[in-house]
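We include this case.
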Amino acid sequence: MRLFIPILPVLFVFISGMTVTNAQDHKLNILVIGAHPDDPDIKVGGTAYKWAQQGHHVVLVSVTSGNAGHHELTADQLERARRDEARRAGEVIGAKYVVLDIDDGKLMPTYENRLKIIRLIREYRADIVITHRPYDYHPDHRYTGQLVLDAAYMVTVPTILPHIPHLERNPMFLYMSDRFTQPIEFKPDVCVDIDDAVEKKLDMIHQHTSQMYEWLPFNQGILDQVPEGDRERREWMAERRRRGFTAEPYREKLIELYGRQRGTRISYAECFQDSEYGARLTRENMNHYFPFFD
């Protein structure tokens, strides 16, 4: 006998103590799924802010708890710190931040973990899911990307997790940008001008104290360069981070999308590639999913 679970016009679900509503308000549901707390901020923070500013529903997800990346804190101490940092980062732009309980550095593309991703995508009724390409340097990044791709299509199958209403339409699955070329380089299908959002993005990243001012400087051998004061730290981090947000590698796509006059002036951008899983990104629907273009 086939199990049928109706999807109500307004669906309330509970996850990690939070209530999510998917009222038919003509707003998009966006899930940014990174491997660690701060991955969604670094790669999608500006665009997430622009979506949130327009009233769309943005949820940032860390698949691991981030409890390994530190030179002094224990796993438990670091997990508590990073959950709090993630919460504060989400609050900067008015977004939810969900941190799963999988240990940092131990993520594997198992069926059990695939079900966790399917649950997330269904419960938040995602229209867009953004994640890592499965070619990244970090195994947690690669496996997060693989898990999300493995969840695609399955989110529409009623007999998989039958107690969680399936999606009647597959979301659009997009990749975050990266600089890796093997086995294939990142090719942007859409780029978003974040000149008006880059400071909010930096404010989000600034919340991740354990990473920006402790672990990463230690790992890079520059811990002695980190300033003491909060304002000085933020300025120091921003100067270093802005270089990674430059629009220059994507100038051709920006000119194509924004026109030559504006496209040549954009300083900072976030770009995304259609994964070819789920709904496809086209020139016809781009303004629907990315309502930032004039």
